[in-house]
Amino acid sequence: MEQSESPAPCVSRLALFLTFSRITLSGFGGVMFWARRGLVERQRWLTDKEFVDLLTLGQLLPGPNVLNLTVMVGYRFAGWTGAAVSVAGFLGWPCLVVIGMGVLYQHYGALPQVQQALAGMSTVAAGLLLATVVKLVLVLPRGWRPWLFGLLAFGGVGVMRWPLLWVMGALAPFAVAAAWKEQE
Fold first, then answer.
1. Does residue 47 contact residue 3 with C-beta atoms inside 8 Å?
2. Is pTM beyond 0.70 here?
3. 3-class DSSP state for residue 147?
4. What is the helix (H) or strand (E) element at residue 118, kind and residue range?
5. For residues 51 and 22, what is the distance between their CA atoms, to the nearest angstrom?
6. Are residues 42 and 111 in contact, defined by beta-carbon separation less than 8 angstroms?
7. pLDDT at residue 31, rounded to an integer
8. pLDDT band at 2 (very low <50, low <70, confident <90, very high)
C-alpha cells in the first residue's frame, strides 16, 4: 500500500539546485515527465500523490505550473532559500541554453536537416507527455466524478474554446462539493 505522505528527508540547497537544473536541462519540449521522474522516482522526495497534489495546486496558481511546483518543493525542504535556489536551478541553465540555441537557430534554422531534427523532437516530446499522463492517471481517484469534471473542463476549454477562468469558476464549486460529499 502506497503511503500518501513521504517523510520529509533532509535535502540540501545544493541538491535542490542540481536536481532542478537536471530536470530542466533534460526537459526539451516540456519538463513534466522529468519533474515527476526526478522528484518521485529518482530522489524519492515526493510520493506520486504528493506530486499530483502539488502539481494541481501549481496549476491553480498564476504562472507556469512546473515553476510553481519548483517553488513549493524548494520551500518545503529548505524554506525561502530552498525555493530561491530551486528556481535558480530551474531557470538559470535553461536560459543560457535557449540564448545559445537562438543564436544557432538564427544562423542554421533554415537548413533542411535542422527542420527534420525539430520535427523528430516534437514527436518525442509528445510521447513523453503521453507517458506522464498515463502515470498521473494511475494516481487519480477511481470514482466517476473526477473524470466527469475533467471531461467537462476539456469540453469547455478545449472544444468550445471558452475562457479557462470562466470554466474553472463554473466547475470548481461543483467539483469541491462533489469531493466533499465523497469524503463523508
1. yes
2. no
3. helix
4. helix 112-137
5. 18
6. no
7. 87
8. very low
